[in-house]
Amino acid sequence: MADRREKIFREAADTLASRRNAVALTGAGISVESGIPAFRGTQGMWEKYDPMEYATIGAFLSDPEKVWAMLSEMVDVLSRAVPNPAHSGLAEMERMGVLRSVITQNVDGLHQAAGSQRVIEFHGNAWELICLSCWNRYPSREKIREGIPPRCECGTILKPNLVLFGEPIPWSAQEEAESEAQSCSVLLVIGTSAEVSPACHIPRLSKGKGAVIVEINPEETPLTRSVTDLHLREKAGDAVTLLLSSLREIS
Ligand code: OAD
């Protein structure tokens, strides 16, 4: 078993070292070790709050105060989180010239905090608030300090600039992510259940263009037996740390 694990890690590291030009697609699982629970599963946000009741644009428009009950809890957890070895390992791979960019479904800003330069925020981020009446934008931290729900100067309740269910993916993020996915040689898929569209289609785009798909997840996902070439069945922090030390040995 230990041999098999070692072999898969070695193969993943060799692939990254020889092909370089890698892109990472990350989901909530990469931030679990930073203290942010994933959405699905027993500890998940969606166990406590039904996303169809609390996380759709329709819900926000009809009852923003109710949605802010969920959002304030989320922002509170995010504001205490710091990057973990998986975030900093990806930033190091970028500095080494192995990783080109990170496409993240996360809204926590931890990739940037860890030093990643090229981050595509597929679902927006939680650190900016936007007014859907006059389109003013505000930094979240300051506004939230004034009270929940935070309000625009015009009196409207503000929305975090993240994608709620029923909202489109920001156009530039969608375009950039597709271009990155179609031109990379290796796609590292880390900590996503691959259940939410359109992000879950990104690995297939890469695979269709010949990329090797390396999945890091302690569990299997719908990708594992369909598009994944190498499944590193580990927590993100351990897997990225091990990959990085193999990469350092090789190069
Ligand atoms: P999920 O909560 O659906 O999935 C998290 C994945 O991370 C699962 O497959 C876990 O097995 C895995 N995981 C858990 N701990 C891990 C660890 N330490 N290391 C690596 N993997 C681990 O989160 P996402 O796939 O990101 O969208 O969810 C996608 C989207 O659904 C989110 O961006 C959000 C949510 O609703 C919106 O809000 C629009």
Strand content: 15-25%
Major sheet strand order? 3-2-1-7-8-9
Cofactors, ions, other ligands: 2'-O-acetyl adenosine-5-diphosphoribose
The CATH class designation of the largest domain is Alpha Beta
Strand tally: 9
Helix amount: 40-55%
| Computed structural class | alpha/beta
Note poorly predicted spans.
Answer: none
Q: What do the pLDDT scores average to? A: 95
Number of helices: 11
Briefly summarize what is shown.
The chain is of the alpha/beta class and 251 residues long. It has 11 helices and 9 strands.
Give an overview of the whole structure.
The chain is of the alpha/beta class and 251 residues long. It contains 11 helices and 9 strands. It has 2 domains: 1-35 and 83-122 and 170-251, Rossmann fold; 37-80 and 124-162, SIR2/SIRT2 'Small Domain' (2-Layer Sandwich), CATH 3.30.1600. Helix content is 43%, strand content 16%. The relative contact order is 0.18. 2'-O-acetyl adenosine-5-diphosphoribose (OAD) binds next to loops.
Question: Which features does this protein show?
Answer:
Rossmann fold; single chain; three-stranded antiparallel β-sheet; 9 strands; 2 domains; 251 residues; six-stranded parallel β-sheet; SIR2/SIRT2 'Small Domain'; alpha/beta; elongated; binds 2'-O-acetyl adenosine-5-diphosphoribose
What's the layout of helices and strands?
Elements: H1 2-19, E1 22-26, H2 45-48, H3 51-54, H4 57-62, H5 64-80, H6 85-95, E2 99-104, H7 110-114, E3 119-121, E4 124-130, E5 137-139, H8 140-146, E6 159-162, H9 171-183, E7 186-190, H10 202-208, E8 212-216, E9 230-232, H11 236-250
Parallel strand pairs: 1-2, 1-7, 2-3, 7-8, 8-9
Antiparallel strand pairs: 4-5, 4-6
Helix pairs in contact: 1-11, 6-11, 9-10
Bound molecules: 2'-O-acetyl adenosine-5-diphosphoribose.
